[in-house]
Automatic annotation (TrEMBL):
SUPFAM superfamilies: MOP-like (SSF50331), P-loop containing nucleoside triphosphate hydrolases (SSF52540). InterPro entries: AAA+_ATPase (IPR003593), ABC_SmlMolc_Importer (IPR050093), ABC_transporter-like_ATP-bd (IPR003439), ABC_transporter-like_CS (IPR017871), ABC_transpr_FbpC (IPR015853), Mo/tungstate-bd_C_term_dom (IPR008995), P-loop_NTPase (IPR027417), Transp-assoc_OB_typ2 (IPR013611). It comes from Thermus scotoductus. SMART domains: AAA. This is Iron ABC transporter ATP-binding protein. CDD domains: ABC_Carb_Solutes_like (cd03259). The keyword Membrane applies. One of its GO terms (molecular function) is ATP binding. One of its GO terms (biological process) is quaternary ammonium group transport.
Length: 350
C-alpha cells in the first residue's frame, strides 16, 4: 500500500508586484522524511517555505497537511514549526525560557525541558543566547520548534551562519535529532553539499519552478537538465550522438546510464574520467592546463588537442600529473543524456 504524503502542495503560485516568484509548484513530502529545497538566490525556495508556514499567502494553489487543507489557516493553527536563518532567539531569555515561550498549559516548562533534553542542551538551560556558541544556539532554536509537537518543521538556511568547522558537526547532530524524533522536515539551502548529505530527497529549484525532485543519488548521478547537472557540482557537458547504450562524443564512445538515440547533450562527471600517460594506447589526447589540489582529491582541467575543448577530470590526491603534461583521457564511468533540445547547446558544451 502506498503511503500518504504528510505535506502536499498543488499548483502553488506567488507574485510580488509583476514578478512571478513561484510558478505552479507541485510537491509531496512524506512522514519522517527530510526534503531539501536547493537552488540559487532568487529561485523562490524561501518564498515557498514561507507560503507553507503561512507567513505568505499564495496567489494560486492549495496546501494540504495530513490530507487537511491549510491554505487559508494562520501560521499558529497549522501545526508547523519554523527554524529561522538567524535563529530568532530572545537575547534576554534563557535557553529554557526561549523554548518555553509560546507554549501553553501548566506543563509548559516540562515540555520545554524535554525538548532541550532531545537536543542535548539540558546542561545549558539557564544560559542566555549570548553565552552559547552558534551550534548551541542552533540546537536551542530546533528545540523551540520541536517543543509544541509539530507535524512538520521548516528550516530556512539553518547552517549558513556557522563557520566551516562547526557546520558539518552541527548538521550531523540536527539530522540525528530529526531522525530520532521521527520529525518530518522541509529544509531550504543554497549549499549543494549540505543538501546532498542532509536530505533524504531534494528538489532543485530554478526561476520559481522545480526542475527535478529525487534522492541525492538520483539527482546527482542522473540529472534531468543541464542546470541540475551543473548546479549539483562540476560536470562536463558534451554534445554527441546516441546509439542506444553509448554515445559518440569528442571523448570517443561514452557509456550511457540509460539508452538514448540521436543527437543529445550529456553530462559526464569529472570522476567518470581517468588520466593516463601520453604513451598509453587508449583514451583521447589532451594537455593539462590547470591543477587544483583540495586535499581529498585533485581536479584537472585538460584541453583536448582535437577538437579544442576543456574537460574536467577528478582524481585522487596522489595523482602525478602537472600543468603542461600531455595526457590521455579515459572514460571509466557513465554519462547521462539530458532533457531539452540538443541543438541549443548551453555554455560549457562543445
Amino acid at each position: 500500500m502506498e503511503r500518504a504524503p504528510l505535506l502536499t502542495l498543488v499548483g502553488i503560485a506567488k507574485h510580488f508586484g509583476e514578478h512571478e516568484v513561484l510558478k505552479g509548484i507541485d510537491l509531496e513530502v512524506y512522514p519522517g522524511e527530510i526534503l531539501a529545497l536547493l537552488g540559487p538566490s532568487g529561485c523562490g525556495k524561501t518564498t515557498l517555505l514561507r507560503v507553507v508556514a503561512g507567513l505568505e499567502s499564495p496567489d494560486r494553489g492549495r496546501i494540504f497537511l495530513e490530507g487537511r487543507e491549510i491554505t487559508l489557516l494562520p501560521p499558529e493553527r497549522r501545526g508547523i514549526g519554523f527554524v529561522f536563518q538567524d535563529y530568532a532567539l530572545f537575547p534576554h531569555l534563557t535557553a529554557l525560557g526561549n523554548v518555553a515561550f509560546g507554549l501553553k498549559g501548566k506543563d509548559r516548562l516540562e515540555r520545554a525541558k524535554r525538548a532541550l533534553e532531545r537536543v542535548g542542551m539540558t546542561l545549558f538551560q539557564d544560559r542566555r543566547p549570548g553565552e552559547l556558541s552558534g551550534g548551541q544556539q542552533q540546537r536551542i532554536a530546533l528545540a523551540r520548534a520541536l517543543a509544541p509537537g509539530p507535524k512538520l518543521v521548516l528550516l530556512d538556511e539553518p547552517f549558513s551562519s556557522l563557520d566551516a568547522s562547526l557546520k558539518a558537526s552541527t548538521r550531523e547532530e540536527v539530522r540525528k535529532i530529526l531522525k530520532e524524533t521521527g520529525t518530518t522536515a522541509l529544509l531550504v539551502t543554497h549549499d549543494q553539499e549540505e543538501a546532498l548529505s542532509f536530505a533524504d530527497r531534494l528538489g532543485v529549484m530554478r526561476g520559481g519552478r522545480l526542475e527535478q525532485v529525487g534522492t541525492p543519488e538520483e539527482v546527482y548521478l542522473r540529472p534531468k537538465t543541464p542546470f541540475v547537472a551543473q548546479f549539483l557540482g562540476r560536470t562536463n557537458l558534451l554534445s554527441g550522438e546516441g546509439f542506444g547504450r553509448h554515445a559518440q562524443t569528442c571523448l570517443g564512445p561514452v557509456p550511457l546510464a540509460k539508452p538514448a538515440h540521436g543527437p543529445l547533450l550529456l553530462s559526464l562527471r569529472p570522476e567518470a574520467l581517468k588520466l593516463l600517460p601520453q604513451e598509453a594506447q587508449e583514451g583521447t589526447l589532451g594537455q593539462v592546463v590547470a591543477r587544483e589540489f583540495k586535499g581529498h582529491d585533485l581536479t584537472y582541467r585538460v584541453r583536448l588537442l582535437s577538437p579544442e575543448k576543456e574537460i574536467l577530470v577528478q582524481e585522487g590526491p596522489e595523482s602525478p600529473f602537472r600543468e603542461g603534461d600531455r595526457v590521455r583521457l579515459k572514460v571509466v564511468g557513465k554519462g547521462v543524456a539530458l532533457e531539452g533540445h540538443p541543438s541549443k547547446t548551453p555554455v560549457g558544451a562543445d
